[in-house]
Specification:
This protein is 44% helix and 17% strand. The protein is of the alpha/beta class. α2 packs parallel to α3 (56-71).
């Protein structure tokens, strides 16, 4: 028996949007949406990305889920919006094709890890920490002291490993030589037009361009292929208040700085 919802969506194009930093909540929402797309056997997925990137593990899980979806026969086209950088690129290279606006900010291929050294401030305030640890690296990136040379070497090895994974994924996804990718994967950002010249983007255009391309790849009629959105992020009433979006952006930046301190990130941080 073919359920009514399957009759409706079996030949329909799906759409999933990744907006804002890629972290736990975004990963959960997007993975659930990808699973729904797979269950409903949608022949094409329009993946809209407007994100500066985020945490390494969350980006990798979404990337892997997209590869599994493609193995089931679903054609995936990524549409880069205002910004698709770092972890946004990592997710995007899992797609069959990538479309970007000429002025899209993309690139920032690399890894960053930051800690907060507050030792001088704490000293002025008369605050000190007493630490008991099981190993010399257990309190690495503690905010009350600077890194030692050994700690810096250890963290650099961690960053290098994560960077190599990023380069490999980009090279594989885009069909590029790894040495070529390394030549521009130094954290720099590009416009969509520059990214196309480097082979990171297939076509220049907007989301409508990407939709038509996804329909073409899946053998659908572009005139009749209106995408069905899965995993839409919750709407916030506060966003309608003037100035609220700017305050939210500032608060988000501060919370990311504190919450992600000490984590390797695939994140564009200007």
């Amino acid at each position: 028996m073919l359920w009514p919802w399957r009759r409706k969506t079996r030949r329909a194009m799906a759409r999933i949007a990744i907006e804002g930093p890629i972290a736990g909540a975004t990963r959960t929402r997007v993975l659930k949406a990808i699973k729904q797309v797979q269950e409903r056997e949608c022949p094409a997925l329009l993946l809209r990305i407007d994100s500066p990137g985020g945490t390494v593990g969350d980006s990798q899980e979404i990337h892997s889920a997209l590869l599994r979806l493609k193995e089931k026969g679903c054609k995936v086209v990524a549409s880069f919006g205002n910004i698709s950088a770092s972890g946004g690129v990592y997710v995007g290279v899992a797609a069959d094709q990538i479309v970007a606006n000429p002025g899209t900010i993309t690139g920032s291929i690399g890894v960053i890890l930051r800690g907060n050294n507050l030792s001088k401030l704490l000293e002025r305030l008369g605050v000190s920490f007493e630490t008991v640890k099981s190993g010399i690296f257990k309190d690495i990136l503690s905010p009350d002291r600077a890194l030692t040379g050994a700690e810096r070497d250890l963290l650099q090895g961690l960053i290098d490993s994560s960077y190599n994974q990023f380069v490999e994924a980009v090279a594989t996804g885009r069909g590029l030589d790894q040495q070529l990718v390394r030549s521009f994967a130094d954290g720099r950002v590009f416009t969509g037009a520059q990214a196309k010249e480097l082979g990171l983007v297939d076509q220049l255009g907007d989301e409508e361009t990407a939709r038509c391309l996804a329909a073409e790849l899946a053998g659908l009629d572009p005139e009749k292929s209106k995408p069905i959105t899965f995993g839409a992020p919750p709407k916030r009433f506060g966003g309608l208040i003037p100035g609220r979006s700017q305050l939210r952006a500032i608060g988000q930046a501060l919370s990311l700085e504190m919450a992600w301190s000490g984590q390797p990130l695939w994140l564009y941080r200007p």
